[in-house]
Structures are given as structure tokens and as C-alpha cells.
Amino acid sequence: EAIVRARAGGGPTLRDCKTYRTRAHAEGMGDFTYRTREEVAAWKEKCPIARLRRSLVSLPAVEPEPACTVEDIDNEVAAMIQDARAFAESSPVPSAETATDHVYSQNPAVASGDRPGSAIESPAATDRILTFAAATLEALDEAMAADPAIFVMGEGIGVRGGNFTTTLGLYAKYGAERLCDTPICERGFVGLACGAAMTGTRPVVDFMFIDFINDAFGEIVNQIAKMQYMSSGRLRMPLLLRGCGGVGHSAATHHSGLYHSIYAHIPGLRVVVPSNPFDARGLMAYALRCDDPVLFLEHRELMQTKGPVPQEHYQLPFGRARVVRSGTDVTVVALSLMVQHASLAAEQLSAAGISVELIDPRTVSPLDLETILQSVARTGRLLIVDEAFGPCGFASEIAAQVVDAGFDDLDGPIKRLHGAFAPTPYAPSLERRVVPQVSDIVRAVQDLMRE
Predict the structure, then answer these.
(1) Is residue 146 helix, strand or coil?
(2) Fold of domain 322-449
(3) Where is the Transketolase-like pyrimidine-binding domain (predicted)?
(4) Which residue in 138, 155, 219, 255 is the catalytic one?
(5) Domain boundaries, the chain
(6) What's the pLDDT band for 111 if we cut at 50, 70, 90?
(7) Would residue 186 show up in a list of annotated catalytic residues for this protein?
(8) pTM for the whole structure
(9) Number of Cβ atoms within 10 Å of the Cβ of 449
């Protein structure tokens, strides 16, 4: 009826399909306390595979006879199952050394960053200035032109070009099939992207505000992050999840998160947090060629900031921190917008005779601990600045790892400066209070120097 209606121009039909789990919750468990055997037997008769088989068998004979019969299919499936069981039973027990294989892509080109385009660490002298948003757009456009497997999904990313101009102009170039506007159903289209990535395409999911990635938490943590591991590397997951967040402009509690600490806790995910246009383009270019799922977190207060960006193609492999500023007295590690705040604080502290070495990790997972340790070995002091919550966070992880691997280089306690452990308020006066300001960083460094 639905087919006839559609072909007659009557439009689409919504079908409500009921499914039923005929087996128990787990092997060896009985579950007839809340349902009867007769009910389960009745639903088994409704099995679509069994119904299709009965339908095929009941069809009138045709000439010439088909190349295979239903019985042939039954026998082929039974043989396949038997072969799979025999293979499993005869295979050796997995070696303990392989327990962490395939958490991430085993593709050596991705692991080493050996892809088209040079891997450069800092912008050469150039008069070419772009905004953060324009830099990532340029990287996305370049990658889509080179790789037809890349497509974008999200709310308002088509003709509109995205809430933050992240896809501006791409709809006119690549069309609706590669710029797919979605309904407000994050778990649905993230699950769709997971399936698409398994088939060999490279989906880009644009959340607009990264807060709403959490509506798809189950898909990301239980499927996307684990797929390569569960398939022993047979399935890839080249999926990019991006969105804006961070505290500012009274966006309040539902539009101000970044969540890098939460997702960095999950094995199988890459977590990228750029702080400037040059890094944003280079990291985006690498993410679009990576075979692992990548969370690309963009601070809203950085989207229209400007900086030098070379014309030629380049990329920045993950796990390589940037030494923003060299110094001798104290190491400050900062992320995203806090890099800009820490740079301003370092200028003020320099005038007071305190030399700050500023490190921008660029990526939280993987984390370039070595660059941080080398800096602490030079300065003897460490302050970590992060606008996110403190408990179980990014700053805590760095502090723990530095104590473990660089304790003898420390001349004082490690200090953390982070946002208040509270939802983000709306009022500007309250908003400023819950996130570190330049003056807070200056004061924290001064206090550390007195330790």
C-alpha cells in the first residue's frame, strides 16, 4: 500500500514496526516470569526471515528452475556457521600482548602523519590572515575536493552554511548529497555516521554547539570508540565530530561546555582542541585524513579571532604540543581560549621579571607529555590552566603524569587553575566569575613563584 501510494504521488508513509526479543536476556536465563511460552512461540512465527522463506516456497514453479533453492541457502548458512565455529574452536587463545591492539588505527601512514602535505609546526612569515572559522573551512573544502568520500551532516549546515560559518559556500559546490541538513536528533544522525564510516566513507558531523554531542553519548562511547577494537581492526572509523563550545557571551549552561576531559577518558577517540587559526587548519586537515574517530572542539570565543595561515596545504599530526612562548621561571600549560589568556598574563608577568614558558598541547588525546616534561625540567614549576571543571579533569591528569615522570625536576607544588565546579550561569557578572581570567592566571603564577 505504501509503495502504491508513493508512486501515485500521495507522498511518504510512516510505518510503525514492532520488534520482539524472543531469546532470554542472557544465555542460561529463563524469562517466563513476565511472559508465556505461547507468547514467544507466536512471535517466532512472525519472524521476517521465516515468513520470507514460507513466501518463497509457496510461489508457483518457474521455468527455467532458479540457480539455487531455499534449501540451498539453508545449507549454505548452516555450513558457514559450522565453519566459523570450527575455526573459533581450533584457533589458539589470543596472546596477552595483543590485549590493547586495534584501540586506534594500525595504519602507519596515519600514525606517523605521512600524508600528502607537509607537517609544519609554526606559521612561516606571511601576510595572509584568516579567522579561525575560515581556516577550518578552507581545510574542509580542500579535503572535500580531494576526497569524494567526505560528507557533512548537521543542523543548518547546508544552504545556511552553519551557525558559525563552518560550511559556508560548500553547499553550492558539493550539493545536498554531501551537505546533509539533519533534524534535531543527535543520537540518530551520529549513529548513521557510525554506520557510514564502517562502509568506507568519511562523515563529518557538525553539532553547531558541542553540548549536544552528549545526546549521542551512547553511540560515541559504545559504538564509535570501540568499533575498531571489536572488529580487530577489520572495520575503520574515519569519523570527525566537531562543534563549538566554551564559556562566553552569556550562552549559559546548555551552550558553554567543551567536555574534552570526559571524552579523553574514552579509549579509541582522538580529542583535538585548537587555540588559533594556524593550528585549527592544520589539525583539521589531519583529522580529515585520520582513520580514527576525532572530536574537534572549537571554542566559540576563538571562531572570529585572526592569525597567519599559509596558502599551501599543510597538516599538524596529533600529539605534538606547541611551545607558544619560551621562559625560564615557570611552565604554564593551557588549552584553547586559555592559551590566549595565558599569553596576555605572560606579558604582564614579564614586565614584573617573571619568565613564563607557555605550552599549548593542541590535542588532549593523544597528549604530548614529553614536551611538558622537558619544559618543567627547565623551569621547575608548573601551572595548568583549563576553563573546564577541576575534579577528574585535564589539569589533574597532567599533574599526575608530571609527578610520576618528572618529580625530581619540580621546585614547588604543581598548581591547577580551572573553572568553577558549577553549571555556567547566564548573567555576565556571574559568567566571568566561573571561568579563569587573565588576572587570575597572573595571580596564580605569582603565588606559585612564592612557594
Answers:
(1) helix
(2) Rossmann fold (3.40.50)
(3) 130-305
(4) 255
(5) 2-61+69-77, 108-315, 322-449
(6) very low
(7) yes
(8) 0.88
(9) 16
